[in-house]
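Moderator note: this is an archived Q&A kept for reference. The question asked for a predicted structure of one protein chain; the sequence and the answer are reproduced below.
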Amino acid sequence: MVSDGSPEESPATYEIRLQGTPTEPLQQRFPSATVITNLTETVLYRRVEESSELDWLLEQLLSMGLVLTEVHQVPEPGGATSEGGDAR
């Protein structure tokens, strides 16, 4: 498959903020994510390799009945490279 080099297909890390605390442990369902939970909000950080993977992740979260409050791309810690990306 030939890549057109478009930026939306570059690996990136996303911060996904969710309302409340999910009943199903997100860390078990998405082991390659970092999950931070408090009483009012859950924050999930996950690296995705292409835009379709982000779409899949958001669909999974919504199918769990979770309410998304914010989704945005965050800088890679320490200027990480695309090597060693997360697997679904």
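Archived answer notes: The longest helix spans residues 51-63.
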